[in-house]
């Protein structure tokens, strides 16, 4: 690889907490050429038993476990804010162009976000949320949308990829996708349909951002 190609490489750090199906979608898209010049330099999980770590290892991607628990036990200088600061410092060592939350189940602290917003080089942090902008922010969004449909409040749901800010699920929207809800759906069927759409949309959003960076 030439130096010019290296400079064009769009480097990701992916944060996970669980199974890692969205991570797998990114890995597959890189391997099949759908994300040219994109590389995952590290996958970081707050949980040591996250299956997504095995997915990363299988793809020869460096992994790190960075748990929150030890920061919650108190002691001088050990709290959520310190966790955010030190997680940000760890991520900086990989020199990412983009940080992707792919099922990362912790709310990022202002200390974390400030590191990438206020210091150079600036790095965007993006998240995939299983609801459309302005709907069902926070946890259990798919279940809440399903219940809203049953109550006649909505006719469909969807998802968005957005930039992460301090306000939950309220950052600049990068991409959205509508997801239908059918009368005969169960919650499990809707969740499966949502996850399949998530994989496609997250990859498309990363592709859009990587191409705009060239």
UniProtKB/TrEMBL annotation:
For the Formyl transferase N-terminal domain, which residue ranges apply? Answer: 11-206
Reply yes or no: does the keyword Chloroplast apply: no
Query: Known InterPro entries for this protein?
Result: Formyl_transf_N, Formyl_transf_N_sf, GART, GART_AS
Concerning SUPFAM superfamilies, the annotation shows: Formyltransferase (SSF53328)
Q: Does the keyword Transferase apply?
A: yes
Its keywords, alphabetically, are: Purine biosynthesis, Transferase
GO cellular component assignments: cytoplasm
Q: Which domain of life is it from?
A: Eukaryota
> What biological process terms from GO does the record include?
'de novo' IMP biosynthetic process
Q: Which reaction does it catalyse?
A: N(1)-(5-phospho-beta-D-ribosyl)glycinamide + (6R)-10-formyltetrahydrofolate = N(2)-formyl-N(1)-(5-phospho-beta-D-ribosyl)glycinamide + (6S)-5,6,7,8-tetrahydrofolate + H(+)
A GO MF annotation of the entry reads: phosphoribosylglycinamide formyltransferase activity
Pfam families hit by this protein: Formyl_trans_N
**Pathways involved:** Purine metabolism; IMP biosynthesis via de novo pathway; N(2)-formyl-N(1)-(5-phospho-D-ribosyl)glycinamide from N(1)-(5-phospho-D-ribosyl)glycinamide (10-formyl THF route): step 1/1
Enzyme Commission no: 2.1.2.2
Which PANTHER family does the record match to this protein? PHOSPHORIBOSYLGLYCINAMIDE FORMYLTRANSFERASE
The record, for NCBIfam families, names:
PurN (TIGR00639)
Q: Which family does it belong to?
A: Belongs to the GART family.
What protein name is recorded for this chain? phosphoribosylglycinamide formyltransferase 1
Lineage per the UniProt record: Eukaryota, Amoebozoa, Evosea, Eumycetozoa, Dictyostelia
């Amino acid at each position: 690889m030439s130096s010019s190609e290296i400079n064009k490489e769009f480097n990701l750090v992916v944060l996970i907490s669980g199974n890692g199906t969205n991570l797998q979608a990114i890995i597959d898209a890189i391997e099949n050429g759908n994300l040219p010049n994109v590389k995952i330099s590290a996958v970081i999980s707050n949980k040591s038993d996250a299956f997504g770590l095995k997915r990363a290892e299988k793809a020869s991607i460096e992994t790190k476990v960075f748990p929150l628990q030890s920061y919650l036990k108190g002691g001088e200088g050990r709290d959520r804010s310190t966790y955010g600061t030190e997680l940000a410092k760890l991520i900086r060592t990989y020199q990412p162009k983009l940080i992707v939350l792919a099922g990362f189940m912790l709310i990022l602290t202002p200390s974390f976000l400030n590191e990438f917003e206020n210091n150079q080089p600036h790095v965007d942090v993006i998240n995939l949320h299983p609801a459309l902008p302005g709907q069902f922010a926070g946890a259990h969004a798919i279940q809440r949308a399903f219940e809203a449909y049953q109550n006649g409040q909505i006719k469909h749901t969807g998802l968005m990829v957005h930039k992460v800010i301090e306000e939950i699920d309220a950052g600049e929207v990068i991409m959205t996708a509508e997801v239908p809800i059918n009368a005969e759906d169960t919650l499990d069927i809707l969740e499966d349909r949502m996850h399949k759409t998530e994989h496609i949309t997250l990859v498309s959003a990363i592709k859009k951002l990587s191409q705009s960076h060239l």
